Amino acid sequence: MRDARAPDPVTDPLPDAAGIDLRLAARLASLRQEHGLSLDALAATSGISRATLSRLERAETSPTASLLGRLCTVYGRPMSRLLAEIEADPAQVVRHDDQAVWVDPETGFRRRGVSPPARGYAAELVLGTLPAGAAIPYEAPPVGGLEHHLWMLEGRLDLTLDGVTHALSPGDCLRYLLAGASRFACPGPEARYLIAICRP
């Protein structure tokens, strides 16, 4: 029998997911060129193989959150800003259907740009959904000193910052300045949280 479940307006991806992947691939290729890096040089700097980088730029594979994190560190921009660069400038009212959703093909992590970066605004708002059992490590922040305010909505999240793990439950709020390595892990059930991000 066919599943008649209605789409969840918060967690279900937008139908334009393939279009986002194509625009992201093109932006990654242009960023490398803007920084004057060959594929070999980028591979050496990012720790990502040349073959993988080539496939990413040709949209033959979707980047994982971990890979995007490494590339954002090389290019000195938060992941949210990278994703915003492939979208049109947001209007004052960001309608639900206009909020870009990106899904990590490796972990199933979903990232919705509720209030994406825009000229004249220092903050942004992101909704994250991390499946039970999934974990995403980031070796370094893309930009040092990013201010984060993470508010748990549902589930459980273990967020490790510089070796210290914070076990978060619904209603908890963790605020921090992102300076070193971090790791998002969901011991279960599925974690849903909002993050307000402010540039330094």
TrEMBL record:
Sorted alphabetically, the Gene Ontology cellular component annotations on this record are: cytosol
Question: Matching SUPFAM superfamilies, A to Z?
Answer: lambda repressor-like DNA-binding domains, RmlC-like cupins
**Keyword terms, alphabetized:** DNA-binding
| Matches recorded under Gene3D superfamilies | Jelly Rolls (2.60.120.10), lambda repressor-like DNA-binding domains (1.10.260.40)
The domain of life is Bacteria
Instruction: Work out whether the entry's keyword set contains DNA-binding.
Output: yes
Q: Which residues form the HTH cro/C1-type domain?
A: 28-82
InterPro entries in UniProt: Cro/C1-type_HTH, Lambda_DNA-bd_dom_sf, RmlC-like_jellyroll, RmlC_Cupin_sf, TransReg_Diox_bact_type
SMART domains noted in UniProt? HTH_XRE
Please report the name of this protein according to its UniProt entry.
Answer: DNA-binding protein
